[in-house]
Amino acid sequence: MTRLKDALDHIAEAVIKQRDLLDRLDSIGDSDHGTNMARGFTAAMEELERLNDLSSTKVVFETVGTAFAESIGGASGPLYATAFLRAAAACDENTTFNVENVEKLLNAAVEGVKRRGHSDAGEKTMLDVLIPVHKCFTPEEAKDKTLYQCIEAAVKAAKDGLDYTKTIPAKKGRASYIGERSIGHEDPGAMSSLIMVRELFNFLKY
After folding, report:
1. Tell me, what CATH number does 52's domain have?
2. Which region, left, alpha or beta, applies to residue 173 given φ > 0 means left and ψ of -120 to 50 means alpha?
3. What 8-state DSSP symbol labels residue 31?
4. Is there a smaller number of Cβ atoms within 10 Å at the N or the C end of the chain?
5. 3-state secondary structure 144-204
6. What is residue 179's DSSP assignment?
7. 3-state class of 203 per DSSP?
8. How does DSSP assign 104-126, residue by residue?
9. Can you give the pLDDT of all 206 residues of the chain as single tens digits?
């Protein structure tokens, strides 16, 4: 599935370009979210280049998740690794991308992140973006929309979710140590999740 590989290459390049921004947003945490995301995506893309067969969505996501797990410490590595690995586990060998399948993969990823991070919406984390994004693909929201239209809606939902993180205190990670003083700051994990959704949309436009 070279199209999936091309999309991931595009997303990886965009996240890596925003490394400094993500590190700055993480100034109330460990100041390394951008550095870690760049390291993870670099490792993931290198591993994908080594694959002889890119036809399996399951294998591609497993490869990315494993690369994140093995190359990044801190909070972001295990959480993004879990998201990709849970999505991979929800695939069969013939999974293709349509609204129904994307909803299933996103649901698996979100539930995995919730369990791994012992977190939920409203705690100033990546879930404040990922949960609204997932909702855009559910039957009640997707209705008769195309996959592209659902992704377009997901970009807006992701931006709204990121903006929401500025209005609430952090309850997870090092940023939680400063409590109410974290209000006014966007969550770096929410930002990296937004970038990924936005760049998937941008990739599909062309």
Report:
1. 1.25.40.340
2. left
3. S
4. C
5. CCCHHHHHHHHHHHHHHHHHHHCCCCCCCCHHHHHHHHHCCCCCHHHHHHHHHHHHHHHHH
6. G
7. helix
8. HHHHHHHHHHHHHHT--TTSSST
9. 569 999 999 999 999 999 999 999 998 888 999 999 999 999 999 999 999 889 899 999 999 999 999 998 777 889 999 999 999 999 987 788 999 999 999 999 999 999 999 999 999 999 999 999 999 999 999 999 999 999 999 999 999 999 999 999 999 887 888 878 889 999 999 999 999 999 999 999 87
Number of domains in the chain: 1
89, 83 Cβ separation under 8 angstroms: no
Residue length of the chain: 206
Prediction pTM value: 0.94
Look at the block and give the residue holding tokens 């100041």. Answer: 31
Residue partners of 206: CB distance under 8 A and separation at least 6: none
